[in-house]
Specification:
Bound molecules: NADP nicotinamide-adenine-dinucleotide phosphate
Number of domains: 1
Distance between the termini: 36 Å
CATH topology: TIM Barrel
Order of helices and strands: EEEHEHEHEHEHEHEHHHHEHH
Strand content: 5-15%
Largest sheet: 8 strands, parallel
Structural class: alpha/beta
Length: 324
């Protein structure tokens, strides 16, 4: 395993972060692993040297955090654990979502209880809260740090102007800034290269892209996308603009390069991420031990500058996806 320093945090993380949206309960989404299989997958990830895990309170309505906590029991200190807050957890309780102080404090406590941990390493805001002033959110997040409930705070998909506003708000109030950005970024969605990624570079913010395999679109030929349970039923995947612009041709070039190098498509798509200086660790989602091993092997794949250019060339700007 390779490790890198996550932004300016001083925290060393594996270059692959394991996404835990796929663990919890299949009652939530058909393609999610139930507890035993989830535990087995996290165990293999640890054997492979992965020390970085990303979950959220909303994944499997809290079950993902519970399974992750169980999997990490007895070795919590060696692991870097990230979770998220924002989406409403209880339909009957409007304060179980959003980014007001009450929601942040209560939902963070609930996350820690499910994880069986005293502190998170990284608490991320899952989305921007248009109803709460950013000053309120940044103060509540900074207080969570002071109370020892999280070591760092991070953002997720939002506009670059919002991220800049949050950072400057934190600075002007003497609060901790966002240390990380978890954004939507892959070979089929590169809008983040315009503003967000250069901004992160400027602020020393660690970048941990979500859906680095475009929810599977970069892991198999485009005409076979519906061949898996997740492909067939993942309504979010269908909403992303992966095959608008030049997406189909990018997918075909990933196929070509994978065949040429005798590796898998998913490995080419991940190798591309590993070659991007602004990416610290892509957050890989998988329900398969074999696919997890593929991801780790992808760290050894060398892409030339012309390989990278060839993969990127057909891309055309697409509509914003991942936030509003
Ligand atoms: N902040 C946010 O708003 C946000 C949004 C989405 C996701 N996330 C985070 O990002 C993580 C990853 O997201 P994601 O699951 O959408 O990402 P992804 O890694 O882009 O896609 C996962 C899909 O790719 C397939 N796959 C993975 N490796 C493969 C391989 N070697 N060969 C063939 N297929 C392969 C998986 O199938 P198998 O299961 O069969 O391997 C799965 O269907 C989540 O777990 C979550 O932590 C965050």
């Amino acid at each position: 395993m390779e490790y890198t320093t996550l932004g300016d945090t001083g925290m060393e993380v594996s270059r692959i972060c394991l996404g835990c949206m796929s663990f919890g309960t299949s009652d939530w989404r058909e393609w999610v692993l139930d507890e035993d299989e989830g535990l087995e997958l996290v165990e293999r990830a640890i054997e492979l040297g992965i020390n970085f895990f990303d979950t959220a309170n909303m994944y499997s309505d809290g079950e993902s955090e519970r399974v992750l906590g169980k999997a990490l029991e007895g070795r919590r200190d060696e692991m870097v654990v990230a979770s998220k807050v924002y989406f409403q957890m209880d339909d009957d309780d409007p304060n179980s979502g959003g980014l007001g102080r009450k929601a942040i404090e209560q939902e963070l406590d609930n996350s820690l209880e499910r994880l069986g941990m005293d502190t998170l390493d990284l608490l991320q805001i899952h989305r921007w809260d248009h109803d709460t002033p950013i000053e309120t959110t940044m103060r509540a997040l900074d207080d969570a740090i002071r109370r020892g409930k999280t070591r760092y705070v991070g953002g997720s998909s939002m506009w670059a102007h919002q991220f800049a506003e949050a950072q400057y708000t934190a600075d002007s109030l003497g609060l901790d800034r966002f240390a990380t950005m978890q954004n939507h970024y892959n070979l089929l969605y590169r809008e983040e290269e315009r503003e967000m990624l250069p901004l992160c570079e400027k602020f020393g913010v660690g970048v941990i892209p979500w859906s680095p395999l475009a929810r599977g679109y970069l892991a198999r030929p485009h005409e076979e996308f519906d061949a898996t349970t997740r492909g067939e039923s993942d309504e979010h995947a269908k909403r992303h603009p992966y095959f608008e612009g030049g997406g189909q041709e990018v997918n075909e070039r990933v196929q070509e390069l994978a065949a040429e190098k005798d590796v898998k498509m998913a490995q080419i798509a991940l190798a591309w991420q590993f070659h991007k200086d602004w990416v610290d660790a892509p957050i890989v989602g998988t329900t398969s031990i074999e696919h997890l091993e593929d991801a780790v092997e992808a760290l050894d794949i060398k892409l030339s500058d012309s390989d990278v250019e060839y993969l990127e060339e057909p891309y055309q700007p697409v509509r914003i996806s991942g936030h509003e």
